[in-house]
Specification:
Helicase, Ruva Protein, domain 3, two-stranded parallel ribbon
């Protein structure tokens, strides 16, 4: 019986490694020169979080979102956020027929496993808020009726920097729903040259095929929850998040939701690296991506050019790392 249990565990481990490797290879074939970005994207997917990709136009934000959707055999919804977008355009609408026929519900594009919210900060705050309940509770309430969203449910939102014309900054409550905020950044010269060569004849997105499905992603997400997070690392994680609330350059620090999501993301990153336990490196690598977008900075920080990422980096340097556990 013991051998059977070990064999099952080994099979699950092999499946986990195989799916992660296939996702990584597929994303790398489309997004060149961004290995760390791809690692975090896969980790957030398996941690059942949501992703906010923020950067200047043309660096591959939407391409990354579309590539992930193409690699998973599941239902994909896309919402192009515009200034005239209505909440019902996101969640769906109840249709009234006549006095004798009950109203019916027409689901919106949010009823999908992967929802690509393109240029989310182009829409008004009212339209943006339509995603709040969806992302936090994985359900939609319309006209007093609640409808459950499918599992898994992942929102990948892209946005341009808020300083650009025609955009609306995301409310703090909306930003807090995203597990991680990612910067794509400009590729290196070598990566950009490789991109030119790859796309001379076709678009890499056109040749992507699914390497897994929704049921498998849900099963792998359950595996992530079993990754061990030592008590000392839990204390370390809480100290990191707590330090954002007392930092002199921060007006509003990271929420308890941030603590929970950083723990989940660290577990997922450890699992994608073939470990069943979390290391301090996992937490430190994800800390800025999970915490920085949640901080509300002071006026002093803005005048001195201190960013949220700078604060997180300073906190990581100042908070003591717990010593390795003895075995």
């Amino acid at each position: 019986m013991t051998n059977s249990v070990l064999t099952d565990a080994e099979q699950r481990s092999e499946q986990f490694t195989s799916v992660v490797s296939a996702l990584h290879d597929g994303l790398t074939s489309v997004i060149t020169g961004h290995g760390a970005l791809i690692d975090t994207t896969i980790a957030v997917l398996l941690a059942q979080g949501h992703i906010l990709i923020e950067d200047v136009p043309g660096v591959g934000k939407t391409t990354l979102a579309k590539a992930l959707g193409a690699l998973i055999d599941t239902k994909i919804g896309r919402i192009q956020f515009t200034p005239d977008l209505l909440p019902s355009d996101v969640t769906g609408v109840s249709i009234i027929h006549d006095a004798q026929t009950p109203s019916s519900f027409r689901p919106g594009p949010v009823f999908a496993n992967i929802v690509i919210a393109d240029e989310i900060n182009r829409a008004s705050p009212k339209a943006q808020s339509a995603l709040l309940e969806c992302m936090a509770e994985r359900q939609v309430t319309v006209d007093g009726q609640t409808y459950q969203l499918p599992n898994p449910f992942l929102v990948i939102a892209t946005q341009n920097p808020i300083e650009m014309d025609g955009t609306y900054p995301l409310p703090e409550a909306q930003r807090d729903r995203f597990m991680a905020r990612l910067d794509v950044g400009y590729p290196s010269a070598d990566a950009e040259l490789l991109m030119l060569e790859q796309r001379e004849r076709n678009d890499p997105l056109d040749v992507l095929v699914p390497v897994t499905d929704a049921a498998t992603i849900t099963a792998l997400a359950r595996e992530v929850k079993d990754v061990f997070l030592a008590p000392a690392l839990k204390t370390y994680l809480v100290s990191l998040v707590g330090a954002t609330r007392t930092h002199q350059m921060v007006r509003v620090g990271a929420s308890p939701r941030a603590t929970l999501q950083l723990a989940r993301a660290a577990r997922a990153l450890a699992a994608t690296r073939g470990r069943r336990f979390v290391l301090p490196d996992d937490i430190q690598q994800l800390a800025s991506q999970v915490l920085a977008h949640r901080l509300v900075m002071t006026a002093q920080s803005r005048s001195e050019g201190v960013t949220a990422a700078d604060v997180i980096a300073q906190i990581i340097r100042s908070v003591p790392v717990p010593p390795p556990a003895h075995t």
